[in-house]
Specification:
Structural class: mainly alpha
Strand content: under 5%
Number of strands: 0
Shape: elongated
Distance between the termini: 20 Å
Radius of gyration: 19 Å
Helix content: over 70%
């Protein structure tokens, strides 16, 4: 019975790592794209209109892209850590993945609650003197988020690679 339970736990851990890797790749490359093409500058400066409301899920908002998958990133990494804890060869990578993922999730929560409402979803765009410092702070936090998602993705990939190599 212990062998079957352990085997089932391994299957669950492997699947969770797959979900975590996919969701973190989605998160990392989406965040990278956002930074490169300066999506925040465009969204923060856009006027509200019937076609493009200034809302978290309005047309043009990255929220529509992230909402379906982003909420599972940190829980998947943490669950992979819990279910894969018995494998000492990948445990360190799972710890790094869960910690990085949690850091990125915390940075995202900060942005969503403290900066995004005023910067992106006020009824009208802020004037340049108010918008510029908020964008600067947004990009600083975004850099932390981007780094955390990259570290989590690399650690998850390493843990998956170790686990895949160890399967007969």
């Amino acid at each position: 019975m212990g062998q079957t339970s352990s085997g089932r736990r391994d299957v669950i851990a492997d699947r969770l790592l797959g979900v975590a890797e996919f969701s973190h790749a989605h998160w990392f490359f989406g965040n990278l794209y956002e930074a490169i093409v300066k999506i925040p500058h465009r969204v923060a400066a856009s006027e509200a209109s019937r076609e493009l409301p200034r809302s978290p899920f309005g047309a043009g908002s990255p929220g529509r892209y992230y909402a379906p998958i982003a909420p599972i990133s940190a829980p998947a990494a943490i669950a992979a850590l819990v279910t894969g804890w018995n494998h000492s060869s990948s445990r360190g990578w799972l710890i790094v993945a869960a910690a990085s993922s949690t850091t990125g999730a915390a940075a995202t929560a900060y942005l969503l609650r403290s900066i995004n409402p005023e910067l992106f979803f006020s009824p009208q765009p802020l004037d340049e003197t108010r918008r510029k410092p908020l964008l600067k702070r947004w990009y600083r936090i975004h850099t932390l988020r981007l780094t955390a998602s990259a570290v989590a993705l690399a650690a998850i990939h390493q843990a998956r690679t170790i686990r895949l190599r160890s399967h007969p």
